[in-house]
Task: inverse folding
């Protein structure tokens, strides 16, 4: 049995199928390194591993990064990851679905950890006494009525 339909229809079907089969995607990945290596990395309250460590991601935006290592001060910061020019609101559909190659967005962040400093014992004692005295003071009474309900 011979397939029915015009050759132009088959060309359109083959081209459509090829376009869908060859459509690309975007791979997003960041790598975190530290000096010295071996620091535990926590990103957005999720432990992701020990440096150097890589993670793929789907969405751009700010990441809350914490690095911890014995003998070094804990480093906590907010790292913004901005979208590249080819992956914005207007072009995202085309880069994710139409472009026939895989686009890679790879970011690398390197942080230097400072050695931990141990404050003198007398300073620690003084800070503790200050906190204790602040805890013994009665809080300022809040207003009642509608203003108190609204937080004034």
Result:
């Amino acid at each position: 049995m011979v397939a029915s339909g015009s050759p132009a229809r088959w060309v359109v079907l083959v081209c459509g199928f090829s376009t869908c089969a060859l459509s690309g995607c975007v791979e997003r990945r960041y790598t975190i390194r530290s000096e010295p290596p071996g620091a535990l990395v926590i990103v957005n309250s999720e432990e992701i591993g020990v440096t150097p460590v890589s993670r793929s991601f789907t969405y751009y935006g700010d990441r809350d990064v914490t690095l911890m290592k014995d003998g070094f001060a804990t480093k906590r910061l907010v790292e913004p990851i901005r979208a590249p020019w080819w992956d914005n609101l207007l072009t995202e559909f085309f880069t994710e679905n139409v472009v026939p190659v895989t686009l890679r967005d790879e970011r690398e962040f390197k942080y230097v950890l400072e050695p931990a400093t141990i404050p003198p014992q007398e300073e620690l004692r003084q800070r503790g006494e200050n906190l204790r005295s602040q805890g013994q003071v009665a809080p300022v009474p809040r207003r009642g009525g509608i203003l108190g309900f609204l937080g004034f």
Remarks:
- The first helix runs from residue 7 to 21.
- The longest strand covers residues 26-35.
- DSSP finds four helices and seven strands in the chain.
- The two ends are 84 Å apart (CA to CA).
